[in-house]
Structures are given as structure tokens and as C-alpha cells.
Amino acid sequence: MSWEPELEELRRRRELADRMGGPEKVARQHGRGKMDARARIAALVDAGSFREIGKIAGKGMYDDNGELTDLAPANYLFGRADIEGRPIVVTADDFTVRGGRRTLRSIARCSRRRRWRTLWACRWCG
Asked: How does pLDDT run across 76-118, given as a tens digit for each residue?
């Protein structure tokens, strides 16, 4: 038995989540002289250290055959990273998705950072 179809589905979901709110909304954010959420995190933390938790969380859109056609990712990025080699929990609101408005899920996700911060014994930056 091969897991390749499932792994390909996860890769596809990650790629869709990386688009954030879509190219137009990301361009609008950049056009206003603002960095998007992923760029803000990348500028803050040590290169390559950010490990996002729940990256593929969001709302999937499916066709009549049940195939994933699009993904509206969560508007709250959350994960673990390092700053100058020290571990931190880092969060960022993504204003390209629903204008960064909080939903019940993002609020619950936000409250989890305290638990992770304690578990990982590190600071929070967000």
C-alpha cells in the first residue's frame, strides 16, 4: 500500500496555504508598503527556523467529485522558531485572509500558544 496520494494531497494543501489570501490580496498588502504575515515572521526569526503548526487549517472548497479545488487558510499563523538561537513561539495575523479578522477558531488557536509556550519553555513573540 502506498501513501503517495495522501502525501501529495498534503503537499497540495501546503501550497494552497502558502498563497495566503491570494496573489491580489498579497500584492495589495505589499502595495501599501506592508509585509505579509510570512514575510514579517521571516524577517524576525533566524533563517529557516520557523516551523508552522496548523498550516493547512482552514476551509477547503471541493468540486462535485469531492476533489479539493481551493483552500481558504486560517488567518492566524502560529509556530515555533528561534531568535538568535533562542526558542520562541511566534504568531502573526494574516491580513490577506478575511482582513485578519479573528474567528472563534483563530481565538482558540491563539489561546493554545500559552500551552505550547509552557510546554516548550520559551517566550512568545507575536
From this structure: 888 899 999 998 888 888 888 866 556 655 566 666 666 666 5
Residues 18-66 have pLDDT tens digits of: 888 888 988 998 999 999 999 999 999 999 999 998 888 888 889 999 8
The cell numbers describing 12, all together, are 497540495
Q: What is the CA radius of gyration of the chain?
A: 16
Half-sphere exposure at residue 21, Cβ-oriented, CA atoms within 13 angstroms: 21
**In the beta sheet, which residues pair with residue 81?**
88
Q: Which three cell numbers stand for residue 44?
A: 524576525
Question: 3-class DSSP state for residue 42?
Answer: helix
Dihedral sign, Cα of residue 67, residue 15, residue 100, residue 104: positive
In order of 31, 59, 88, the CA distances from 80 in angstroms are: 29, 23, 6
Q: What distances in angstroms separate CA 3 from CA 6, 20, 71, 88, one per listed residue?
A: 5, 27, 22, 33
